Amino acid sequence: MKPERPSLTAAFVAACRGLAPLLPERARLVTDPYGLRVLGPLAEATVDALSRAPAPLRTLAWGPMLPMLPWAIYMQVRTRVLDDALRRFLAEGGAQVVILGAGFDARAWRLGDSLGDTVVYEVDHPATGRAKRARFGEQHRVRALSFDFERDALSSLPERLEALGHRRDAPTFTLWEGVTMYLTEQAFEATLGAVRDYSAPRSKLAFNYVDRAIVERPSFAARAVSAIVSAVGEPFKLGFTPPTLASLLARYGLAVEEDLGFDEHAARLLPEPWARVVRAGRRIAVAERTATAVRA
Q1: Which terminus of the chain is less hemmed in, N or C, by CB atoms within 10 Å?
Q2: Could you tell me the pTM of the whole model?
Q3: The domain containing residue 261 runs over which residues?
């Protein structure tokens, strides 16, 4: 991302989540009332008015926004799957959440009933963090850590979290959403090392990633997406096959519990024809920190 401005892809993701009220009810998996705040009051008011309009009018509203429709559905699936993983962790007694590259993630606001007294440590670039606080306001459970992933040493992350109150001896849920495909392999592994070092056994790491083929042999649609994100300074760099990823995670004391494609999740969560909008090639992995991991 550009150092002087908030992440444009983070803003795009938030806006896509904010379009949920315009989707048919059966395709609406998550409602994020904060998503459209990144676009301003006019966008919020427009979507709010359309959401209360008759269904045919909502359908017509998608006309000028048709290219956004697959992204809105995709974000519904991605957000719901990661929400469910976090809720399972909380139901098992977890009380610490770290969000790496938090962007305009609104879970600390949206999931208040599930989070209770859980502390949410949001780690992100200073520019994005400032923009988020300006739009969302303060949230008592959030402890923000300004961190430049391209310049700050990832080895310092555990100590900096600890300075904010994070406990290394208690399980942590680490959410790493919409980040990995923009990293170099070295940055990816350095982040895994930091997660290992601040995570107690039974901690979870949940993240999405792209199949290696999307990076190495992209389809026309994938090339179009890559061109867009490259133009705003955030090009796709990294992808994995599931076996390769599992092997790499194991080196950092992380055992894969689940690794499924977005298309598989969509088939479970969405009715036809909406499930077919979500294509293969993008995946979500959830891994657990094992008791045998050795800290660096």
Answers
A1: C
A2: 0.90
A3: 68-289
